[in-house]
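Dear Dr. V.,

Thank you for agreeing to look over these. As mentioned in my earlier message, I'm a first-year student in the group and I'm still getting used to reading structure tokens, so any feedback on how I've presented them would be very welcome. I ran two proteins. I've put each sequence directly above its structure. The first is here:
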Amino acid sequence: MSVYEIRDTKCLEKLFEGWQETLIWSCMQGCMGRAYADSVSNPMSAQIVIGDFCFFAGEAKKELVLNKPDDYRSNFIIMIPQNNEWSKLIEQTYKERATKVYRYAIKKERDVFDIKKLRKIVEEIKKPFSIQMIDKHIFNQVMSNSWSKDLCSQFNDYEDYRKRGIGAVVMKDGIVVAGASSYTVYNEGIEIEIDTRKDYRRKGLALACGAKLILECLNKDLYPSWDAQNKGSVALAEKLGYHFDKEYEAYEIIDY
């Protein structure tokens, strides 16, 4: 079987139909990411790679499970199978390099946010901390630190981020200590990434950044989508007004 890069993703719509995942929408809408399939005209199997994530749909094919985009520089990826056949194939292909994990989907509901409550959370940030939106100086600082660069890493440069991205950070003495930003973007919204420097955790900083980012998104008529890596992230999302949807299977792959 040959693997083809798909430029016009319309042919993949049926394979990914009903999958409530904004990273998939980003690629299908041509905003970010790359798509591959077993055929350009009549695909039965498909792969979407965006950020650190990879989604498989349709019939399970080993060639797609092994496919790595030529511009993908990391040796780590999170693979998300549409069905059990893909799960088995990922396990057989990567063996001990694949770790099965469970992630937590959060419901996508437009009208669940309590604006007053979110504003109150933001206002609770007091000196020596301050909340600021990401500008060029902050973007460069965010990108220079390994703990924070995922906040903006999917954008080509600051100009790309300025046009399409959005984010808020908490600063102390001119240094970024927490942030919430658009990990990816799609036509109707963003997928949120939240990070806090290790020595500043459990101070409500991630909560404040999240609240600020949600308010800014609503102001711009963008939906702030949230997907949780762990139960702590679910709890944080729920404090901001989101509701848990379901647990789902994923595979963390090393030496990809």
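The second protein is here, in the same arrangement:
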Amino acid sequence: MLLKIIFSGFGGQGVLMMGYVLAVAGMKEDKHVTFLPAYGAEVRGGTANCTVVVSDNEIASPIASSPEYVVAMNYPSMIKYLNMVKSGGTMFLNSDLISEKPAREDLKTVSVPANSLAHEMGNDRALNMIMLGAVNAVAGIVSEKALAEAVETVLEGKKKTLIDTNQQALVKGSKYMCSGCGS
């Protein structure tokens, strides 16, 4: 298995955390992992993205030139990465901010109303973990247990009060996909 994923959205949507949690979950399952965040002028409201590669074997490059999956949390991200997704790949869209489907016939599109689902939970900032739960439910990259443990690892210390909410958000995203609503 070798899977390349790009997460992209506005700064403040938790895009880098999505990628980091997935990378930590992969390590918890003894997979080879790379995590390549985009640092620069990203601030709340700007753009942010990261690339995660998860593999059973050593990874030659952390660059995902033609990823199997792209997670677009906003419309500019969908446009930016649309032509990068591998033919037959999947694009996950935050349907609360992206109303149109990509213009490529060779892609699977999965729509997740991440903002609305987070609002239902009473925590608008949980949209990133909802989306990650949905992505993992479809792609089966790591176990749900590994994701939950990764959230704990990433948030231990000063942010440990956020662990339960983020784990619940992962489950909410996964359940949304498993209910057949996301296509």
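From my reading of the second output: The beta strands are 2-10, 32-37, 47-55, 69-72, 90-94, 108-112. The radius of gyration is 15 Å. Does that match how you would interpret it?

Kind regards,
E.
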